[in-house]
Design a protein that fits this description.
The chain is 39% helix and 10% strand. The protein has helices spanning 63-76, 82-87, 101-112, 129-140, 157-168, 187-199, 215-225, 255-267, 282-295, 311-321, 339-351, 369-381, 407-418, 422-429, 439-448, 456-466; strands spanning 92-94, 120-122, 148-150, 177-179, 205-207, 245-247, 273-275, 301-303, 329-331, 359-367, 386-391, 436-438, 472-474. The model is unreliable at 1-62, 228-236 and 397-402 (pLDDT under 50).
């Protein structure tokens, strides 16, 4: 990846600080781990961390913040969450699976109105329901510090979508990252959310995965993303101009919905990351996607894993890759593509001198020596590219043995000989001389350096170790 557009931030522990985004295009998704539970008996609405243990916590929080929360809990008739009290001055608050319920959520919201420390709040699987969502959006109208909110797996349904839609249309919060996965949203919810996103320009990342959108939902969201010139009318809805990342994986968007989404993407100039995996839109959807790739100059990351795309669809996608100059990551894993379709994909990249492709995942496709020989020719033209595939038994290009040699040990040995640090070795490969480097440039530099003999498979292992999930490798993670 290059410097101008990182794709995905690294997981942060609960007690680490999470910096505010530097631009509207940064940090497209992240993952977080739940806090370690404490094994005690709790009421039905509370999780294992919701006991009140405050006698030794004075040094962790401002008294006013603590007292406000305790009063709110008393008012709501709920047991305070000790984890919240202990960490209410950290930037990342993880309250996933705490059984808060709507009352416990309201107590949290009351305390957060005046909180200036927390910028990321996770409330996955807390049965917050409509009442809890209403408390949160009321809090967000007053709190201009909270930037990321995860309220996934809370069964919000249509009423929850309505509350969120009305809130988003007002553009009155600092929220830029919203996760709404697994909330039983159906077509009516898609309509409400599309209306909100057509008016909202602040939200940059939206996760709507694991919901129940079908083709109609895909059509609504496609209209929100954009319409072609031929479709523009005086009554056309406003288009979203803020989203840079949209996750629609694990829904029920089939051919008609996928085509509508692709039509919207043709005119969209802001969306950079799109996840449509596990929807099953087949070759017809892939055909529309290929035409979109031919016309779209913004999309950087595209995941269409598990969509029943065969060779016919792969050929159509290949046509788009022949002229696309923006896409860097394409995931086609778990699709019934054979070696013939795989060859068409890599040859399309080779034909395009302006291709910026860095990662192609076809790791379930069984290939032979013929494919790997063709791929070597592609690598010669695009050294930044890495293709993941499945080598057939006996294939001479199967490089399993290379993985037995730890690349870090080889680099450490060279660094010791030169009396330099491993970090200094990596920094010497970066023209900018900094601790971070785009993945594609790093891969190219590692292949072209002659200090340590290393191959693509070993480089892949290095990237996995240093990748920030933003399209950048970070040398500072090394010991």
């Amino acid at each position: 990846m290059d410097n101008d557009e990182p794709l995905e931030p690294e997981t942060k522990d609960e007690n680490e600080t999470t910096p505010a985004p530097q631009s509207s295009d940064e940090m497209l998704y992240c993952e977080a781990e739940p806090p370690t539970p404490v094994e005690k008996d709790k009421p039905i609405w509370e999780s294992s961390e919701t006991d009140l243990e405050i006698e030794d916590n004075e040094k962790f929080f401002t008294t006013g913040q603590k007292d406000l929360y305790l009063e709110a809990c008393k008012l709501m008739g709920v047991v305070p969450v000790s984890y919240f009290i202990r960490n209410m001055e950290d930037s990342h608050m993880n309250l996933n699976h705490h059984g808060l319920g709507p009352r416990g959520t309201k107590a949290i919201a009351i305390a957060l109105v005046s909180n200036t420390a927390i910028t990321k709040l996770e409330l996955e699987d807390n049965c917050i329901m409509e009442e809890g969502v209403l408390s949160l959006v009321e809090m967000l109208q007053e709190n201009y510090y909270l930037q990321e909110l995860d309220i996934s797996e809370n069964e919000l349904g249509l009423e929850g979508a309505r509350i969120i839609s009305e809130f988003l249309q007002r553009n009155i919060s600092a929220l830029w990252n919203l996760t709404l996965s697994g909330n039983s949203f159906k077509e009516e919810s898609a309509t409400l959310l599309s209306q909100a996103l057509s008016a909202n320009y602040r939200l940059k990342r939206l996760d709507l995965s694991h919901n129940q959108f079908s083709d109609l939902g895909g059509e609504q969201l496609g209209q929100m993303l954009g319409v072609g010139e031929a479709e523009l009318t005086p009554s056309s809805p406003a288009l979203n101009v803020g989203l840079t990342a949209l996750d629609l994986s694990w829904n029920h968007i089939h051919t008609q919905g996928a085509v509508a989404l692709c039509n919207g993407l043709r005119a969209n100039v802001t969306l950079k990351k799109l996840d449509l995996s596990m929807n099953g839109f087949g070759n017809e959807g892939a055909s529309a996607l290929g035409e979109t790739l031919r016309l779209n100059s913004t999309l950087v990351y595209l995941d269409v894993n598990g969509n029943d795309i065969g060779n016919e669809g792969a050929f159509k996608i290949s046509r788009g890759l022949e002229s696309n100059e923006s896409l860097r990551v394409l995931k086609l894993f778990l699709n019934p593509i054979s070696m013939e379709g795989a060859v068409s994909l890599i040859l399309a990249i080779k034909k395009n001198p302006k291709s910026r492709m860095e990662e192609l995942d076809i790791s379930n496709v069984l290939v032979t020596d013929q494919f790997t020989k063709i791929l070597e020719g592609v690598y010669a033209v695009h050294p930044q590219l890495d293709v993941e595939y499945k080598a057939a038994p006996g294939c001479s290009a199967k490089k399993t043995l290379f993985l037995l040699t730890n690349p870090m040990k080889m680099i450490q040995s060279y660094a010791d000989q030169q009396k330099i640090s491993v970090v200094d070795f990596f920094k010497s490969l970066n023209p900018a001389g900094t601790m971070k480097m785009p993945v594609g440039e790093f891969r190219k530099a590692m292949l072209q350096q002659n200090k340590v003999p290393i191959n693509r498979y070993q480089i892949r292992e290095l990237i996995k170790r240093m990748d920030e999930k933003t399209g950048m490798v970070n040398f500072s993670v090394l010991p």
